[in-house]
Design brief:
The protein has 765 residues and is of the alpha+beta class. The chain contains 24 helices and 12 strands. The N terminus and C terminus are likely disordered.
Length: 765
């Protein structure tokens, strides 16, 4: 049998190998037509998520709370002028035309009540546009005395107004509806700014936040992925001094991404703000595999091998570490299935699949292309610098070991500064128009977050009972006194106002009626007077057995918002009544998911560590090297979170998965280094010689892959979506830390624990 017949198929028949790969890619891509994008915030929550279930139950009992809010800020800093109130009137009228709108609340259509000769009058506070300024004083007086308006629809400093539109979003995928509504809202804003140039208008609300998710994902897909492709292509071409190497690498990347995306479509996984980053991650990881093959080829070219033999030898020595590192990386990403966030689990699965495809293609398709277009021997890489560094580390290994360990311990100690703190409305950076609106809202109104408390009597018309109303009033008063609460919308304020109106507008009667029957009559009379779309369905359920108290709060972190929820429940239950209390809202959902995700990912990270360590022990067949690998792989994450504790200290939903995600990535450098070290040991080299050999054979590859990975995740770090950006930044810190650990701590450790006894010679495959 000839030598040629022993070659693998992809080396013996490179053209056929490439054609086969293209056919597989074409078949997979058929599934891409099934892909669709979901940008609504509910993608972050399982349908069985307890907070989501509580929120949806509340949505079914009361009016929906998804909204579009127009915040009007006059340049005069005083809303009580003719133009500003007329602008509020015009936006109120226009907002009814928003798709799926069911309710519009503003200062203009607020249902003002008063007594007229013993009759209850209910009418719009501003039933037509102002023709002069004579009514301004009366309108301002009403606002000042009405807690349902003041602090909610009119800021306490009277610098801004809000027109709040309730939206009835469809069940399931809401992305299309959200984009349509947001587009219509932006059109209203543009029209009104043209008519009222002395004002600023800002869009907030849950629908606009959903749209911001979609905009961020689209922006990332359109800008980050092309930028990353270009950046990586240029960096590879420069570092390895070969344009063809860059071309072949990107071909492997494209094949890996295309098949991953296609198969994702086949299995029915949708794209989201998180999963649009899968191509970015696959690209960086696929490049790392290719770099090892290409640098290996160049290494053997520098040793005098022919181009063909250099390819064969590079594949031979790299296939084991590439396979191990790909599996460990895939394990790390698969552990994202422990995440409480579905889209992060999808991201993990997609990336794990892409990583394994990149592993296969880097060991088959890439060599096929290198056979068809061999690299020139003139571009062989000089490893002198790495040999010198290896010699330095070996010579000073004890000092470097103590120094590196001391430094790592000091930096890692700052990890204790980190705390979980998710603020959903601040997932976007200052480039986002939504984030800009949130910041202005926070400055003027104190924040747009909320917690809705539902108080259940479980009895029809139970909410009119005097003891229940007394408890609601006490609870509402307790809430309003909390520093983090900016406004409380409660039915008891409405009932107090009605009692005053029905008693000749006498301020002495601005209290809850002492008679339950009277309270029921007032409620019935008021509801009969309310126009369509402005009923009390946002506060009371249909049979009057439950009541919703809405607390508008500062844009709190997850710890603060869950603490407020706990404190509120403790206070209400301390009233020793028979009623029950539940709390729900999107901000509360995000707060709880962050905490639950962190707990889940601790177990995911432990399992990832156990599986990866076991795999490395099996692959290296050495307890000593396995232990060295385990220690080395733990340190970069400790360093990364230590650095994060120094510069930020805020851990959000995305950062809680970084340990598991990066664990598989940082193992790569360690495995490649240990693999080369072990190869040298099996060739009867001493520990010191083996360390130097590892540096000479893999030092350039590790440096190059780290640079490329850093550049790839740097693109992710530039995302306007802060979850992605922070994930990118922390991953970069950990990846760079891993290279430093592998270039200082690991070789120093190997030089220290190694001995010069000759190991048993084994065949290396």
């Amino acid at each position: 049998m000839s030598h040629k017949s022993k070659k693998p198929f992809y080396l013996a028949f490179p053209k056929a190998s490439l054609v086969f790969t293209l056919l597989v890619m074409a078949l997979a891509l058929i599934g891409a037509q099934n892909l669709y994008f979901r940008g609504d915030y509910k993608v972050f929550f399982e349908e069985s998520d307890p907070q989501r279930m509580a929120f949806e139950e509340m949505q079914n009992v009361f009016n929906k709370t998804e909204n579009v809010a127009f915040m009007i800020v006059p340049k005069s800093n005083d809303v009580f002028n003719q133009d500003t109130l007329n602008l509020a009137y015009d936006i109120t009228e226009a907002a009814w035309q928003l798709p799926l709108s069911t309710r519009v609340e503003s200062i203009s259509n607020y249902q003002h009540t008063y007594d007229l000769d013993g009759d209850l009058i209910v009418e719009d506070l501003l039933f037509e546009k102002l023709q002069n300024s004579e009514e301004l004083a009366q309108i301002e007086k009403v606002v000042d005395s009405t807690p349902e308006i003041f602090g909610r629809l009119v800021s306490k400093n009277k610098e801004a107004l809000v027109v709040d539109t309730t939206i009835q979003l469809p069940e399931g995928d809401q992305t299309k509806a959200v984009i349509e509504i947001a587009t219509a809202a932006k059109a209203i804003k543009a029209e009104m700014l043209e008519r009222y140039p002395d004002h600023e208008i800002y869009l907030t609300g849950m629908v606009i936040m959903n749209d911001a998710f979609a905009v961020a994902a689209q922006s990332d897909a359109e800008t980050l992925i092309p930028a990353m492709f270009l950046l990586i292509f240029v960096s590879i071409a420069i570092i390895v001094r070969s344009v063809w190497s860059a071309v072949f690498t990107m071909a492997v990347v494209i094949a890996s991404i295309a098949i991953t995306v296609g198969l994702t479509g086949w299995v029915g996984i949708y794209l989201s703000t998180a999963t649009v980053n899968a191509p970015t991650m696959i690209t960086t990881l696929a490049v790392a595999d290719c770099i090892h093959i290409i640098v290996g080829v160049k290494y053997f070219l520098s040793k005098g091998f022919s181009a063909h033999n250099a390819i064969e030898q590079s594949v031979k020595v790299n296939k084991k570490p590439i396979f191990i590192t790909s599996v460990t990386t895939a394990i790390g990403f698969l552990m994202l299935n422990f995440s409480a966030v579905p889209v992060l689990a999808h991201l993990g699965n997609m990336t794990a699949l892409g990583v394994m495809l990149a592993c296969v293609f880097s060991l088959t398709v890439l060599p096929s292309m290198l056979v068809l277009k061999p690299l020139s021997s003139g571009s062989a890489i000089n490893n002198t610098l790495f040999v010198r560094w290896g010699a330095f580390v070996v010579k000073n290994h004890k000092v470097l070991l103590v120094f590196s360990l001391s430094t790592i311990v000091i930096i890692s100690a700052f990890a204790m500064n980190n705390r979980l703190n998710d603020v959903a409305v601040k997932y976007f950076d200052e480039r986002s128009t939504f984030r800009q609106a949130v910041d202005v809202n926070e400055k003027i109104f104190g924040g747009m977050s909320n917690i809705d408390f539902v108080l259940y009597t479980d009895t029809p018309y139970g909410i009119t009972k005097n003891d229940f109303l007394s408890d609601v009033a006490l609870f509402s008063e307790w809430l309003s006194k909390r520093e983090e609460v900016n406004h409380v919308l409660t039915f008891t304020d409405t009932l107090k106002r009605l009692n005053k109106n029905m008693n000749g507008d006498d301020e002495a009667f601005h209290v809850i009626p002492g008679d339950s029957e009277l309270a029921s009559q007032y409620l019935l009379l008021y509801e009969m007077s309310l126009p369509f779309g402005l009923d009390l369905g946002n506060q009371l359920d249909i049979d009057k057995s439950a009541l919703r108290v809405i607390a508008v709060i500062e844009n709190l972190g997850s710890n603060e918002i869950t603490q407020l929820e706990k404190d509120a429940k403790v206070f209400f239950n301390s009233l020793e009544n028979k009623y029950r209390i539940e709390a729900a809202s999107p901000p509360l959902m995000f707060a709880h998911i962050g905490e639950r995700n962190m707990k889940n990912m601790v177990w995911g990270s432990v399992l990832a560590l156990a599986l990866i360590s076991g795999l490395i022990l099996f692959a290296l067949r050495s307890i000593k090297l396995g232990a060295a690998s385990l220690v080395t792989n733990l340190l970069p994450a400790a360093i990364g979170f230590g650095v994060w504790g120094m510069v930020s200290g805020e851990i959000n939903m995305a950062l809680s998965v970084v340990i598991s995600m990066t664990m598989g990535i940082i193992v790569d450098d360690t495995v490649h280094f240990l693999s080369k070290y072990q190869t040298a040991r099996k060739e009867n080299k001493s520990a010191h010689e083996s360390v130097i050999f590892a540096f000479s054979s893999v030092g350039m590859a590790l440096t190059t892959t780290t640079i490329v990975l850093t550049l790839g995740f740097a693109v992710l770090a530039s995302s306007s979506f802060m979850l992605n950006a922070h994930m990118g930044i922390l991953t970069i810190i950990i990846i760079v830390a891993a290279l430093i650990v592998d270039f200082i701590f690991l070789p120093a450790l190997l030089a220290w624990i190694g001995d010069d006894r000759q190991p048993k010679r084994e065949s290396y495959t």
